[in-house]
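Tutorial sheet, problem 5. The two components below are modelled jointly, 662 residues in total.
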Amino acid sequence: MTALYDVAAIGNAIVDVIAPAEDGFLHAEGLTKGSMQLIDEAQGVDLYSRMAPGMETSGGSAGNTIAGIASLGGRAAYMGKVASDELGDVFAHDLKAIGVHFETPALTGGPATARCLVNVTPDGQRTMCTYLGASTELTADDVPTELIEQSAIVYLEGYLFDPSEARRAFAKAAGLAHAAGRMIAITLSDAFVVERHRGELLGFIKDQADLVFANEAEVKALFETDDFDLAAAQLGAMTQVCAITRGEQGSLILAGEQSHRIAADPVDKVVDTTGAGDQYAAGFMFGLARGLNFDVCGQLGSMAAAEVISHYGPRPAVSLKDMAVARGLIR
Amino acid sequence: MTALYDVAAIGNAIVDVIAPAEDGFLHAEGLTKGSMQLIDEAQGVDLYSRMAPGMETSGGSAGNTIAGIASLGGRAAYMGKVASDELGDVFAHDLKAIGVHFETPALTGGPATARCLVNVTPDGQRTMCTYLGASTELTADDVPTELIEQSAIVYLEGYLFDPSEARRAFAKAAGLAHAAGRMIAITLSDAFVVERHRGELLGFIKDQADLVFANEAEVKALFETDDFDLAAAQLGAMTQVCAITRGEQGSLILAGEQSHRIAADPVDKVVDTTGAGDQYAAGFMFGLARGLNFDVCGQLGSMAAAEVISHYGPRPAVSLKDMAVARGLIR
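Model answer (structure tokens):
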């Protein structure tokens, strides 16, 4: 059966609050630069009170990826839980406005829509503190069978390993996808997520995932080694396809006997690295869903990542489809 | 008595929803480019559903101006009504985070925090549709006597002539300010506001205002003429000081017998003109409150306006104080 959607993603539905910060601010707040940590509502209020004025944009790792798929001209669907509040409305609007199928019912009477407090230092690095709020209330009931069956790739966010209900949603999606002959992709999301859930992640990668995204820190954390080549080889041996991003060093794609090194795209000025990995995954999966070869998939990933780090905000600011056509990567 | 605040402003407390739009979108929606129109909640929901994904930032004309005052290193206070909701929290945060005194109690049980749907066309022009929500619930009780008495300049937004309760707040502020020997400033805000309230605005300018800000379209609308020089002369004759902005042509300052033409600052690329007039007013009033001469006041205005139109969003992205010091405008 031809897939109705190129990619359907399940993720934590989060609104980003992005503000500039100095390195000293991170230090004073005890935050590790470049990391994502979970905070509760009170901690969120406390930290926000000391942050600079910011801007609010829809975020969430898989939400950003799915926005990238749509920007590439792909058919995209998203499953994630917002609350029935103002930020939830913003999140839903921003997906629907770009043609993403998003019908997960909003939560009423529970916690507020999740938000991620993003402090961006002058080097463009983002340090994130996430209050999960309503996003943790996603359940297996929020994963419609037809939607999974109709999607070429079902993409799952490693962050969702934190809330346990969502893990059941994962399991349901994985089972349905495989039964329908679809591909399951997962991103490791964050080195601390890997630390917290190494066993479960390894199990999921071995038993369920066909495609794994990771960055260098995450793959090293997964195999508890500082040797990148060793870690990459172990991940490659464990899954059909993996794509490992290495910042300025580009990415490495391993698929059975194949190995592809893809260069990063040059960027004049890195403004905000938020969403780089998310957009790499978007480019790669769009290519894969359309049957392009791994080199082109990787180049689409590099292109999409370079676009998003050249401006504030975690989603494409221009049409990635136009960019990709101009470069001859797609028609 | 030395003033505790350089400027205290009263305005519609609004969160901006900023999204890119093509000219064809404005046409299809029946919107006049560059204008601000009032919409009700249902119209807001309807228009928002068709807009592109956006970003949310604190806005409101006087709120933007007061953020500019703070960015220049000035002591600033703000009075305006948000609701006790998420966007209201964002608005309050963004002012307090830059040191602005903002203690107007949030509205509970009424309409939501006001929002302005801003469609930015590729030429950088912004077309605004505003749902006033909670902002219209500002009353004279929200204008604390001591705050007005302690502020060198009390700045009022022409937009507040729309909701009648706020006009009473104006009258109270003007009365208190003059009794305390303070200066009353007003911006005409928008040509359509002038059309709606020409009589009241003319009365207020003649009887109450010491300083008037307007752009070319507004001053022409005020005196129902296409002759800019005539309109400017009429405004100049009616008030102590007026500063009229003319986009790329800079600004004209009239004060009694004095007339000063101030050049606009060059901008590499105009991204979003939102807040240009607001920041001009910030630069000008900061200079005036600090006793600088009119030429420097105008140059501070040009500088602040040029900064804000070079990026998305209606408030300064860098320290205006550092910019002004680097140019030798202030120490």
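Marking note: The mean pLDDT of chain A is 95. Full credit if you identified this.
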